[in-house]
Design goal:
three-stranded antiparallel beta sheet, Rossmann fold, 14 strands, 10% strand, 536 residues, five-stranded parallel beta sheet, 3 domains, alpha/beta
Length: 536
């Protein structure tokens, strides 16, 4: 294993031999599929080089016509590239204006829904960012608004063809034994569903709870398989926490919106449009798929107006608000992976806030704060919810750590808030179970909406006696730190430009990639999946 290659650095960097975790599973990937995106493909050369040396692994890269020359530099003799545009053509090779037989399309769609345990609207169309305008009908409050059945039949027909293509691909490439992919469109979601059915491990790396760190998922939807396995089946983590093990708070107070800052952003948008025009002139390739200039201007103006509105509308007097007991509900950014993918069954945030407010006992308020990246919610969204007597909108400049510290607990759709609540010894009510903190004593998953009021009352009655076991708290953070590799300055993060990790961190990233595959194979071989909600 890689431990032999970098034993001394591994001991210093990881403190444990990760290759020994779940070592009873024989997992040596021979054919890996890598789905290339600009936020992930920078790591692939180092990952591919290491796997080739140790396992003689071959690779299939899913690229694009534009990026194919760049990705061709990653290849060796046995590797190949599949261009996603060719895939799109193969799916849409028939005329979309053809007379579709709605009954046949529906029958086949129902077949795939049943076969893979999913729903086309909830689990596929909702997750495809390019289809969000179709799904939400341009409604800026982000409430589901279905369009007429003809459009839906066209979409179902495309998804049917996608599944047929993906199934055929994996039949012809049955030796693929690991896939790096994040579900984000019809093709990637179908690939994840087929892989789960064929018990092929799927993973992707994402930002961890540690400043500028990254970690691999345990399945297509993050999953809690890796940390659950380690906490339950190993003695890793001493429970003695060091200062560098506690995540650094990454929140920064948003800058106040001003007319000058708005005009500065408009100038930036205009300059970039000029840059694009010059590039198009030089290449004589005038792209038509860019977001229209005036759409960008309109969106920026809407963002500016929303910031001005919230600055006046939200309550700035947190000292007064915290005199009454409250639970904290952070608004997620939308559309976002946390909502449309990880919590897609409960994607109406307004409904969840109303449900929480109606379920709270008298004397307990619900403090709500907008996400740092103000989204496209309408002013009516805030006004309608604030009409409820126990819902209070807190000013965006209020620190989340302060809101959590003085609260009875948090209610959220997941994300980092439950982990921050853990650090401060608070209970966290979570809608959706696709987040990697299952089994922690402060996490309470909300699965029965009808009995949410009873659940809140029971947990709040025990609030005074709740004390998070310090050893479990420390061990969780220690293990999470162990499962993270340092990725500062890379394209995983905004404005990152770095394309390579330091050798020690690259070795750790590869070990953690293999660990994700081994643990998923362990669950598959023992009659399950990485968690009960892995299905696509």
């Amino acid at each position: 294993m890689l431990t032999i290659l970098l034993t001394s650095t591994k001991i210093r960097i990881m403190k444990v031999d990760i290759s020994k975790i779940c070592s009873d599973v024989n997992f040596k990937p021979k054919h890996v599929m890598l789905y290339c995106t600009t936020t992930h493909d920078w790591l692939f050369p180092q990952l591919m080089e290491t796997l080739r040396v140790h396992f003689d692994t071959k690779f299939t890269l899913i690229s694009s016509n534009k990026r194919k020359p760049h990705h061709a530099n990653f290849l060796s003799g046995k590797d190949r590239i599949i261009v996603v545009e060719d895939f799109d053509v193969s799916v849409t090779d028939t005329n979309l204006d053809e007379k579709l037989d709605a009954k046949n399309v529906t029958t086949l769609a129902n077949h795939f829904e049943k076969k893979y345990g999913l729903n086309y609207l909830r689990d596929i169309i909702q997750q495809d960012r390019s289809k969000l305008s179709f799904l939400f009908g341009g409604n800026r409050s982000f409430k589901l608004k279905f369009v007429d059945s003809v459009d839906l039949i066209i979409e179902a027909n495309l998804i049917n063809k996608t599944f047929m293509y993906v199934e055929k691909f994996f039949q012809e490439n049955s030796d693929i034994d690991f896939v790096q992919i994040r579900p984000a469109d019809y093709a990637s979601i179908a690939i994840c569903a087929v892989c789960n059915s064929m018990k092929i491990p799927v993973s992707f790396f994402h930002g961890s709870y540690f400043n500028l760190g990254a970690q691999w998922s345990a399945g297509a939807y993050m999953g809690n398989g890796i940390i659950n396995y380690i906490l339950k089946n190993t003695n890793l983590g001493t429970g003695k926490i060091s200062q560098d093990t506690v995540p650094v708070e990454q929140w920064k107070a948003p800058k106040k919106a001003t007319l000058f800052s708005f005009l500065k952003k408009l100038a930036w948008i205009f300059w970039h449009r000029v840059e694009f025009f010059i590039i198009d002139l030089k290449t004589l390739n005038f792209r038509t798929n860019r977001v229209p200039y005036f759409t960008n201007v309109r969106n920026e103006f809407g963002h500016y107006r929303k910031q001005i509105f919230l600055d006046k509308f939200a309550d700035k007097n947190f000292e007064q608000l915290k005199k009454q007991n409250y639970l904290y509900f952070p608004l997620p950014f939308e559309p976002e992976y946390t909502v449309q993918s990880l919590c897609r069954e409960l994607n109406d945030v307004g409904f969840l806030i109303r449900l929480a407010a109606l379920s709270l006992p008298i004397g307990v308020n619900l403090l709500v704060k907008e996400h740092q990246r103000v989204g496209s919610r309408s002013e009516h969204f805030y006004q309608e919810l604030s009409a409820m007597p126990n819902v209070k909108f807190v000013h965006p400049a209020t620190a989340a750590s302060d809101l959590i510290r003085d609260s009875l607990g948090t209610i959220s759709l997941g994300g980092s808030t439950p982990v921050e609540a853990l650090m401060l010894g608070k209970k966290a009510f979570v809608f959706g179970k696709r987040n990697p903190y299952n089994g922690l004593p402060n996490i309470i998953y909300v699965e029965d909406l009808r009995n949410f009021a009873e659940l809140l009352r029971e947990e709040l009655d025990n609030f005074g006696s709740f004390k998070l076991p310090q050893r479990e708290f420390n061990r969780f953070y220690e293990v999470m730190k162990m499962l993270s590799f340092e990725a500062s300055g890379t394209r995983l993060f905004r404005e990152g430009q770095r394309d390579r990790l330091e050798p020690e961190q690259a070795a750790k990233a590869c070990e953690l990639f293999l660990l994700s595959g081994r643990i998923q194979k362990h669950y598959f071989e023992n009659g399950g999946s990485v968690d009960s909600n892995y299905s696509c």
